[in-house]
Amino acid sequence: MTGRDDLLRDALTQMADGAVVPDHMGERALRGAARRRYRSIAGGAVGAVVAVAAVITVPTAVLGHGEHRTVADTQSPGSFVPWHGAIPSNTPAELAIVKECMVGPPNVSKTPTSIHSRSADNLTGPGTATSSFRVLVTRRDGNGTAVLLGSVTAERTCDLDRSGRASESDRRPNESANTWQPPLTAPLNGQIEVQDDDGGVMQDKNGPTPVSKWTDADHLLGRVSSRVARLTVTERNGVTTTAGIDHGFFVWRAIRSALLNQDTTEPITMRAYDSTGHLLQTYHPGPPA
Amino acid sequence: VNHEARRQFTDFVAARSTALIRLAYVLTGDQHAAEDLLQSALTKTAARWRHINGNPEAYVRKAMYNEQIGRWRSPRWRRELASDTVPEVPVDDPSREIVLRLALEQALYALSPRRRIVLVLRYFDDLPEAEVARIMGCSVGTVRSQTHRALARLRELAPDLVEVLEPELIRRST
Questions:
Q1: Rounded Cα–Cα distance for residues A34 and A14 (Å)
Q2: Percentage of residues of chain A with pLDDT beyond 70
Q3: What is the pLDDT of residues A191-204, one digit of tens each?
Q4: What is the mean pLDDT of residues A79-106?
Q5: Do B53 and A113 touch (CB under 8 A)?
Q6: DSSP characters over B84-129
Q7: Is the ipTM here above 0.85?
Q8: From the candidates A1, A2, A8, which should be mutated to test the interface with B, based on the most B CB atoms within 10 A?
Q9: Residue A192, H or E segment
Q10: pTM, full prediction
């Protein structure tokens, strides 16, 4: 240790001595985490943001289930490909998206796990390298594109702005990915399977961008059966938007403006339809415990 | 988060909050900013608690580093830099060591957050270069160059610190 090192260390230590330990940080963090999850399954004015900025909601007709039909709803299933248990290949454009979204291989946490049995490091091996990730499904909206990336092992969402630039949080080196939960090898139970469905919407990002100005994006993601051709998400205020579906996966996001951010505990409803418009299943993502 | 996990999380925060707020403070140089930074990191940690493997403190620390680097990238953060210059240190001050230390503190605050983070990781957390590189997502060479630039910037901001920041340079010149 040199004199320079000592001086720097002492100076930093003395700076740290000026810190005051706040009270109840743990409780506040828990409340904040729960609030984020509640917000994620919220309706209210936030839905209006989605309606205006995301899917250009144009109520043109009322479906049999009382939902407003949107422009996005009227689109055909398009490139929907039934899920056959394999991760699709990337096109060159999709490969570019993966590279845009991932800076270095993601940290993939081992799951299922609990803090009782933590076993040190992140998962390695098949499905954890950047090259293992594919673009499974995308969903365009007025703020850009929500992307679900996945490998045989893990999944991650990525938010692109309108210029195709990934959010700052997505661009963080080795930004974490989550192991599929339930795993991809597990059979689907029903028509809709929401990933990590014990807290409503489990993905959230903080990512202000110069283009879109949004700060929070919440996602629903998971798998749907091969019968599902359209998946809608209805927030409490009745605004319905569609999730992107492809390769048997889906992704949906809500953009939250910092100015309109609000907390609410209202649930959302997911509805899966087949290609003839027949309702297959109504599903409520699990509320936070 | 079930009851047991909540209890474990709050126990963890209670046990480590002093060390964590100290780190947040040297990263931000401000009590309110430090609380915001730590609260944000803890909230993310709470949301991912049952998925965290290994040391949760490492997760919180990395969350703080990442967020602070993100703030550094934000134009808003750059506007918030308090100062770009540091007052000169009187040469014949009888309590020169103290004055030098105060000058160094001010100079550290005036560094860009990324450079400050490198110095914090190296000299406050005592992490090896390889670990710093892993956290910052760059090469060991970049860590070295960032450290070098950070020290050079400190010398610019507080010229009187040269003799303690570069002892070898002083020795060679005499």
A1: 35
A2: 60
A3: 998 886 543 333 34
A4: 70
A5: yes
A6: S--PPPPTT-TTHHHHHHHHHHHHHHHS-HHHHHHHIIIIIS---H
A7: no
A8: A8
A9: strand A192-194
A10: 0.43
